[in-house]
Amino acid sequence: MDGRAPHGVALAPWVRVALSPAFLLIVDLIAISAGFLVAYIVRFVLQFPVAEEVHTLRSYASLLALSVPFAWAAFGAYGLYRARQLVNAVDQAFLIGTAMLVALVAAVAIASFAIRGWPDYSRLLLGYVWVACTGLSFIGRFLWIRWRGWLASRGTGVRVTLVVGAGAAGVRVSRHFDRFPHLGYRVAGFVDSALPLGGEIGRAHV
User: Fold this and answer.
1) Which of 122-131, 169-178, 191-200 has the highest mean pLDDT?
2) Which of 84, 124, 175, 177 stands the most exposed, by the fewest C-beta atoms within 10 Å?
3) Which residue has better confidence, 116 or 191?
4) What stretches of the chain show up as alpha helix (H) in DSSP?
5) Cβ(133)–Cβ(48) under 8 Å?
6) Contact in structure between 163 and 174 (CB atoms under 8 Å)
């Protein structure tokens, strides 16, 4: 049933893309862009704290343009576009924060050394950018996982699979997929020559 809706109805191409972890590239683009905007508002519109010099939003457009591809690369290096990594909230927050910090440091460092006349950015704003981008990216992933899990509960985009071996390891695999439906797998049964045919383990058949 991979890539198909209930009753054998094929999914639209955009739904196939949205169900893939690669869709998180778009989520991160939106999150990072929004993070820059939120950080700018906090620093220079709300002025927390009071700024001696108010920068224009346009002056940070180039840094945003550099930060997005660096963030994609860092997120990819930390495995944040792999479905199996999208299971633990604490690990997600730590990895996103680390990857975003690496991306910002790389973007600022390369820009400072490679581009003559690069503006002197507010260091406090960069701190706000890191916090805002990390938080919004985490929220984006959380919402995607919940949406993906909701679709999976309705049978959309779910791969029906068999687990070889009904021992402790096989049962753990089955429970893992039940616990994290956004991974897109539903265990239909177990294959194990040591057990009688027709038995049941949880909701799966042997």
Assistant:
1) 122-131
2) 84
3) 191
4) 13-19, 24-40, 61-77, 89-114, 123-153, 168-179
5) no
6) yes
Q: Is residue 129 within 8 Å of 104, Cβ to Cβ?
A: yes
Helices 89-114 & 61-77, crossing angle to 10 degrees? 130
**Burial level of 24, CB count in 10 A (0-12/13-18/19+)?**
buried
pLDDT bin (cut points 50, 70, 90) of residue 3 is: very low
Cα separation, 67 vs 31, in Å, equals 12
User: In the structure encoding, which two tokens stand for residue 87, read together?
Assistant: 């299971």
Q: At what angle do helices 24-40 and 123-153 cross, to 10 degrees?
A: 140
Whole-angstrom Cα distance, residue 32 to residue 71?
A: 9
Q: Are 44 and 55 in contact (CB under 8 A)?
A: yes
- Select from 177, 182, 144, 143 the least CA-distant residue to 161: 177
Query: Which residues have C-beta within 8 Å of that of residue 118, sequence separation ≥ 6?
Result: 111, 112
Over residues 142-178, the pLDDT tens digits come to 998 888 778 777 777 667 777 777 777 777 877 777 7
> In sequence order, which residues have a C-beta less than 8 Å from that of residue 116 and are 6 or more positions away?
none
